[in-house]
Design goal:
heterodimer, A: alpha/beta, D-Maltodextrin-Binding Protein, domain 2, 13 strands, B: mainly alpha, MetI-like fold, two-stranded antiparallel sheet, 65% helix
Chain lengths: 431, 284
C-alpha cells in the first residue's frame, strides 16, 4: 500500500472527530423545552419528591413555572459540579449547606439570598434560626431549608436492654458499662456499618463535640487543617479508641453495610443493642423491620454526655436540613428568589412534610407535629433541635470535598486500629 | 498484493471512534494532570505539582502494590483453572455439555449482580459463612477475597477461549502420539500446551490488563475497604477524582494507569513471540 493512500483516510478521520466534537458542543445549549420554567434539581426520594412537586404546583398556581429533576446521591454530587458553570445549570439546587455549599459560593456560582430574606421577613422568621444558619456563610444567607431536620440519635433495642437489665446510657460511663454488659452476654453492644465511613464519622463528631465543645471543629473548618492539632482532638480520639478496643462495635463491623441487611437489621433482630444513626433510621426500620418498630422495641436517646467534657450535652450533629440555593448565573434568578421565599414555609408544604414523617425546619410546628405518623418521635426530635445550642453539620459535608475524602479514609484506618489517635491527627493536619 | 487488501478507507470509522473516545480523552487527561481543577471553574496550570505529589503519595504507592498483587494472583488462580477446564470441555465426554453450561453461568451475570451477590454471601451476620473468616472485613484477606470473586467471574470467559482453541488442535497429532504410545499427560504437555501457546498469550494479556483496570467489582464489593485494604489504583483514581474532586491529581493517576497498561501488553506481546504469529500446525 502506498503512503499516499493513507493520507486521505487520515484527514477524513480527523474531520469525523472534529465534526463529532463540534456537533456535540452545538447541541449543549440551554434546553428549549419548557422555556422560562425554573429548573430545580434535588436528591431522589420517592416520598419527598412528591411533596417537592406539590410546592411546584402551588408555585404554578400563583403564576410561576418550574420543573423538578432528581438524581441519586453520588451521581447528583458529580452532575451538579459539572453542570453548575454550564448552560445546563439548574436555577435552584438542593444542597447540604455548610462547607459543601461554600465551595460553590467561593467559585462565585451561588446567589446571595440575604436581601431577599430581609425583604420577606415572614419567610425568614418562619424558619428555626439555627437551621437557617446552616446555609449562612460569613454574614450572608445562601440557601433556604426545604426538607426535614435530621440530627443523629442513639437508637437502642428496648427488649435487649430490659433482658440485660441495662438502661439507656445518658453519660459516657453508663455507655461503657452497657458495652461491658452486652459483651458479656455475647451481644454486639453497638451496631456499626463500617463499610461506610460516614457511620464511623458520627462517633468522632459526637465524642469531640461532647469532650471539647463545638468550637474545635468550627475552628478546623474556618481556619484550615492546622486546627486538628488542638490537643482536645487527640484526647477525644483516644476516648473513642478505648471504646473500639473495648469491643463496643464487635469484630465484624468493617464488613457490615448500612443499606440492606446490615447494621439496622442486627439491631432489629437483637444481635446488637445500640446504633448511632441519623433520624432516617426510624423510617428505615419501619420499612425493613416493621414489627420491631410497631411492638415498641425501638428506643432512642440523645448522645450521652461526657463527664468533664466542655461540650454542651444538648449539642447535635447530623444533617441540619437540606437547602435550596439559587445559581448566580440563572436567567430566572428573580423567580428562584420568589420560589424560596414563598413556597418553602407554606402551611400546605410543611403539613405534607410532617405527614411524610419529616420534622420540618420551621418555628411553631408543635401542633402540626401531632399529626405526624409517629408524633412521639417527631416531637422528640423537634424539641431536641429547639433546645440545642449548636447543631453541627456532618463533617464530611462541612469540609471541602478533598479534605473530607482524605479524613474519611484516615478515620476508617483508625477504626481498624491501623492508625493511632496521634497518627490520625498528624495525617489530617498535614493536608 | 496490496490491491487485494481492503482500502484504508475501511479503517476510518474505527479510527474515528478511537480518536474521539480514546486518543482525545487521553490527551485531555494528560493536560489535566498538569492542572489543579476541582470540577468547578476552569483548570489552572500548576506545573508538575500533581506529579511530585504522586511520587510522595504513600497511598498511591500502596495502591500500585495492591494492583500488582491483584494482577499476579488472579493470573495465577485463573490460568490453570481456565486451561484445564477449557481443554476438558473441548472433549467429547458425556457430561460435558451439561457441566460446561453450568461452568459458564457466571458469564451471563452482570458485574454489578456478581459483586452484590458475593457481598451478600460474605456478609458477616447474615451471609453464608457466619462465624467464619471475615472475608471482606479482615484487611489481611480482603484483597484475596476480591481476587476470588474476580476469578469466579472471569474464569468461564477464559475457559471458553481455551475450549475453542483446544478444539482447533488437529486430531491427527493426538492420533500419531497415541500410536507412539504417549500417555495422556505427555499428550497434554507436548501437544496441547504448545498448540495453545498463542491462546495462553491472548488470555494472559486480557487477564493482566483486565486486572490492571478492574474497577466495578471492587467498587461495589468493598469500595476499597476495609480501610484501604482493597483500594487498587483505579479505585484510588476514582475516589480522588469523584469523591475528593481533585481532578488534576486523579488525572495524573490515570496517566500512570495508561502507561502501565500499554507497557504491560507490549511487554507480554514481545516476550511471548506473539508478533511472529506463525501457525504451529503441520503443513503451513
Amino acid at each position: 500500500m502506498s503512503r499516499r493512500s493513507w493520507v486521505r483516510p487520515l484527514i477524513a478521520m480527523g474531520l469525523v472527530a472534529v465534526t463529532a466534537v463540534v456537533s456535540a458542543c452545538g447541541t449543549s445549549g440551554p434546553g428549549e423545552t419548557n422555556a422560562g420554567a425554573l429548573k430545580i434539581w434535588a436528591l431522589e426520594d420517592p416520598v419527598l419528591n412528591k411533596i417537592e412537586n406539590l410546592s411546584i404546583d402551588s408555585f404554578k398556581a400563583a403564576g410561576g413555572n418550574a420543573s423538578l429533576e432528581t438524581f441519586g446521591n453520588d451521581p447528583y454530587k458529580q452532575r451538579l459540579r459539572v453542570a453548575i458553570g454550564s448552560p445546563q445549570a439548574p436555577d435552584l439546587f438542593f444542597n447540604w449547606g455548610g462547607g459543601n455549599l461554600k465551595e460553590y459560593v467561593d467559585a462565585g456560582k451561588v446567589a446571595d439570598l440575604t436581601s431577599v430574606l430581609e425583604e420577606n421577613k415572614a419567610a425568614k422568621d418562619a424558619f428555626i434560626p439555627s437551621v437557617l444558619n446552616g446555609a449562612k456563610l460569613g454574614d450572608k444567607y445562601y440557601g433556604v431549608p426545604m426538607r426535614g431536620m435530621q440530627p443523629v440519635l442513639l437508637f437502642f433495642n428496648k427488649k435487649v436492654f430490659s433482658e440485660a437489665g441495662a438502661k439507656p446510657p445518658t453519660t459516657w460511663d453508663e455507655l461503657l458499662t452497657a458495652v461491658d454488659t452486652f459483651k458479656a452476654k455475647g451481644i454486639t453492644p453497638i451496631a456499626l456499618a463500617g463499610t461506610q465511613a460516614w457511620t464511623e464519622l458520627m462517633w468522632a463528631e459526637y465524642v469531640l463535640d461532647r469532650w471539647a465543645g463545638h468550637e474545635v471543629f468550627q475552628n478546623i473548618r474556618d481556619k484550615g487543617p492546622e486546627g486538628w492539632k488542638d490537643p482536645a482532638v487527640v484526647e477525644a480520639m483516644t476516648k473513642l479508641k478505648d471504646l473500639i478496643d473495648r469491643g463496643a462495635f464487635g469484630s465484624s463491623f468493617a464488613s457490615v453495610g448500612y443499606d440492606a441487611g446490615g447494621a439496622s437489621t442486627i439491631l432489629a433482630q437483637g444481635k446488637a443493642a445500640m446504633h448511632l444513626m441519623g433520624t432516617w433510621e426510624y423510617t428505615n426500620q419501619l420499612d425493613q423491620s416493621p414489627d420491631f418498630v410497631k411492638n415498641g422495641d425501638l428506643g432512642w436517646v440523645a448522645f450521652p454526655s461526657i463527664p468533664g467534657g466542655k461540650g454542651d450535652a444538648g449539642n447535635l450533629v447530623g444533617n441540619v436540613s437540606n437547602f435550596y440555593s439559587a445559581t448566580q448565573d440563572s436567567k430566572s434568578l428573580d423567580a428562584a428568589k420568589k420560589f424560596v421565599t414563598t413556597e418553602l414555609h407554606k402551611d400546605s408544604y410543611i403539613e405534607a412534610l410532617v405527614a411524610a414523617g419529616d420534622v420540618p425546619p420551621v418555628v411553631g410546628a408543635e401542633e402540626k407535629l401531632k399529626k405526624s405518623p409517629n408524633p412521639e418521635y417527631a416531637s422528640f426530635i423537634y424539641e431536641l433541635v429547639l433546645d440545642s445550642k449548636n447543631f453541627q453539620l456532618s463533617w464530611d459535608q462541612d469540609l471541602p470535598a478533598d479534605d473530607a475524602t482524605f479524613m474519611l479514609t484516615q478515620l476508617q484506618e483508625f477504626f481498624l486500629g491501623k492508625v493511632s489517635p496521634q497518627q490520625f491527627v498528624d495525617a489530617v493536619a498535614a493536608r | 498484493m496490496s490491491s487485494q487488501r481492503p482500502s484504508a478507507w475501511y479503517a476510518v470509522p474505527a479510527f474515528g471512534f478511537f480518536a474521539l473516545f480514546a486518543v482525545l480523552p487521553m490527551l485531555l487527561v494528560i493536560y489535566l494532570s498538569f492542572t489543579a481543577w476541582d470540577g468547578l471553574g476552569t483548570p489552572a496550570l500548576n506545573g508538575g505539582e500533581n506529579w511530585s505529589r504522586l511520587l510522595e503519595d504513600s497511598e498511591a504507592r500502596a495502591s500500585v502494590w495492591r494492583t500488582l498483587v491483584l494482577m499476579v494472583v488472579s493470573w495465577l488462580v485463573q490460568t490453570p483453572i481456565a486451561l484445564l477446564v477449557g481443554v476438558w470441555a473441548a472433549g467429547k465426554q458425556r457430561s460435558r455439555a451439561v457441566l460446561s453450561s453450568i461452568f459458564f453461568l457466571p458469564l451471563l451475570l452482570s458485574t454489578a449482580a456478581i459483586a452484590l451477590l458475593w457481598q451478600a454471601l460474605l456478609e458477616p451476620n447474615f451471609g453464608a459463612f457466619v462465624g467464619g473468616p471475615l472475608f471482606l472485613g479482615d484487611p489481611d484477606i480482603a484483597l484475596y477475597t476480591v481476587v476470588l470473586v474476580i476469578s469466579w467471574q472471569f474464569v468461564p470467559f477464559h475457559t471458553l477461549l481455551y475450549q475453542g482453541a483446544a478444539r482447533a488442535v488437529p486430531p491427527s497429532l493426538y492420533e500419531a502420539a497415541t500410536i507412539d504410545g504417549a500417555s495422556r499427560v505427555s499428550k497434554f504437555r507436548h501437544i496441547t500446551l504448545p498448540q495453545l501457546r498463542y491462546t495462553i498469550v491472548t488470555s494472559s494479556v486480557l487477564m493482566l490488563v483486565g486486572s490492571l483496570t478492574t474497577f466495578d467489582t471492587v467498587l461495589i464489593l468493598t469500595n476499597g475497604g476495609p480501610g484501604t485494604a482493597t483500594r487498587i489504583l483505579p479505585l484510588h483514581m476514582y475516589i480522588t477524582g469523584f469523591s475528593g474532586f481533585e481532578m488534576g491529581y486523579a488525572s495524573a493517576i490515570a496517566v500512570v494507569l495508561v502507561v502501565l497498561g500499554t507497557a504491560l501488553s507490549l511487554a507480554v506481546m514481545r516476550w511471548s513471540g506473539f508478533r511472529q504469529m506463525s501457525s504451529q500446525q503441520e503443513g503451513s
